[in-house]
Every structure is written in C-alpha cells, then in structure tokens.
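Lay summary. Proteins are chains of building blocks that fold into shapes, and those shapes determine what they do. In this project we predict the shape from the chain. Here is one chain we studied, written as its sequence of building blocks.
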Amino acid sequence: MNVDTVLFLMTWFWASWEFYHIYPLESGLIRRKARRDRRPGLPIESALTFYPRHLLSTIAIHLQLLAMLGRLFWIAQKIKRDPKAREYTDLALTPQAGGDSDNLELFQLTEGARQAGQKARQHAERLATAK
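And here is the predicted shape, written in a compact code that computers can read:
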C-alpha cells in the first residue's frame, strides 16, 4: 500500500476511537451534534453554552488531529527517503519456505482455520493451473 494511504487510515481509525469512542466507519471529519438531542429527563442545554462549547471542542479535536498527522507525516517522509526501506524485513515479512503456510500456528488453532487454509491453498492451485 501507499505510505500516504496507510498514514490516512491509521490516523482516521485512531482518531475515531480516541475522540469519539466509535467505530471508524461510523465517523466523519466533523461530528454533528444537535442541541436538542438529549437523553430523556435531561433539560435542553442553552444555545449560549452549547454552541461555543461544541465549537471549541471541535477545534481542539482538529488541532490534536493535525498534530498527529504532522508527526505521522514526518515519519512517512523518513520512510520514503530511506534508501534501505525496501530491504527491511522481520519475522512477519519473511516468506515461508516454499510458500507453505500450513505449519503456521494461525492455520492450526481451529478447524475453521484449517478449512480456511485448505480453501486458500485450493484457490492458489486453481490460479496456478489456469495460467
């Protein structure tokens, strides 16, 4: 994936939970709040207190979001400029011998995992024979 796309998605998913405590696909750039949408039994808040507080909260959240984007942007720029970035590897990125992933614990934990591994293997075999 493109580094900028990963940066955007990481920030969006982090901010959705951090600021609004909701799933990222239920959030947006600006949260809409209605002054009259209150829990039953609670009084409607005065417009003189609600709107300024909501505006300041929105500004504060977006400033924190910009700060996070700025930090991640500089990290992304360092990654893009690093000539050895494509050479990086770790255990998660290491290819399995012969492409065999059947021995990984992930595919052995449950019967469903074993079936999913077998289905993926069959799909890969069909693709290989189709070529």
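What the prediction tells us: The helical segments are 3-20, 47-81, 111-130.
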